[in-house]
Amino acid sequence: MKLQKPPPEIARMGLRGMKMVATVDGDFHPLERGLMNAVQENILDTEFELDDLEDITPRELAEGLPDSFQEQFFNGCLIAALIDGQASTAEGALLDEYALEFGIKSPELKNLHRAIDHHLLLFRFDVARRSFLGQRLKKRVQEEGIRGITSLVRGLVKSHDPKVSERYRSLEACAEGTLGRGYFDFVRNNQFSLPGEVGGPPEPIVFHDCLHVLAEYETSSLGETEIASFQAGLLRKQPMFGLFFMLAQFQLGIQVTPITEAESNQVDPEVMIKALVRGTHVNRDLTTNWDPWDDFNEPIVDLRRKYNILPR
After folding, report:
1. What's the whole-model pTM score?
2. What is the per-residue pLDDT across 32-48, written as a single tens digit (0 to 9) for each?
3. Which residue did the predictor score with more confidence, 211 or 86?
4. What string of DSSP letters covers 138-157?
5. What is the pLDDT of residues 160-170, one digit of tens each?
6. Which fold has domain 8-118?
7. Per-residue b/e over 199-219, b at no fewer than 16 CB within 10 Å?
8. Within 13 Å of residue 137, how many CA atoms lie on the same side as its CB?
9. How far is CA 95 from CA 161, 162, 228, 237, 270, in A?
10. Per mean pLDDT, which range of 127-136, 236-245, 265-274 is the poorest?
């Protein structure tokens, strides 16, 4: 994901529009305030007092915001509509006006309306297929065909595959400090299962736990919102669906992945934005086209330097 820092006057105008979305349903929720302040601190580098921001119309926004900042601003408004745990009809209608004035065709907005209208089957399917999870699974099936589909099904039904499990158990022999040993210890210390073991994840999901190791995020609910936000920052294709995935799974209580149960109201806006921005600094999309086996024998400190994973 690419984030731009606009001039202060443009940033202020965008914040006015973002506040309109946050308050259009009559309430300025603390999480919406927290999101806007986190955006100011970590992306915009501004310190505007939110209560002093004047109302602004969609037409005024379209005329005042340069084209190069409109999509980024619009995406921020989408997150503002979801951050309090539910999107309202009023928020959706205002975002429709923004999209019309900006000339934006947004699949994310379509899914926001699906959430509002409780069309959750379509919401789950589209968010899953467009997020890093869907992109990675699609790549696996394209590369391996029927064999790839079979291995995915085995992982999802949590069956035992001795050949796969032995391959991952061999990582215990990797040198201390390498990604392979770090991943093995991460799985065992958290009392998870390795791929191929009963209860283990499908192999295409291994990258996620490896990113936990490289980025040093915990496996608590809050830690999972951090790693998911970090992954959204890594994405080069449809990165907003990475955030939609995270917000659905941990804020809206809408289960998108069949592997993990959904939770509600777990997202801290400050933590989310910090992790997202950290992910944008990484110089390679490690979510969709990275095979951890290429790096299991490499020292973790070297991989952080290689991929520009900044300290927390």
Report:
1. 0.91
2. 999 999 999 999 999 99
3. 211
4. HHHHHHHHHHHHHHHHHHHT
5. 899 999 999 99
6. TerB-like (1.10.3680)
7. ebbbbbbbbbbbbbbbbebee
8. 18
9. 48, 51, 25, 22, 23
10. 127-136
pLDDT of 65 higher than 80: yes
Query: The tokens of 221 are what?
Result: 């609910």
Helix (H, G, I), strand (E, B) or coil at 40: helix
Sign of CA dihedral 161, 162, 166, 169: positive
The distance of Cα 257 from the centroid of its chain, to the nearest Å, equals: 13
Express as a percent the part of the chain with pLDDT over 90.
83
Q: Where are the domains of the chain?
A: 8-118, 132-306
Tokens of 275: 């992790």
- List alpha helices for the chain, DSSP H: 8-23, 30-39, 58-64, 67-82, 89-102, 107-116, 120-130, 132-156, 162-169, 179-189, 206-215, 221-234, 240-250, 269-280, 300-306
3-class secondary structure, 74: helix
**Residue 136: what pLDDT?**
76
- Within a 13 Å sphere around the CA of 279, how many CA atoms are in the beta-carbon half? 30
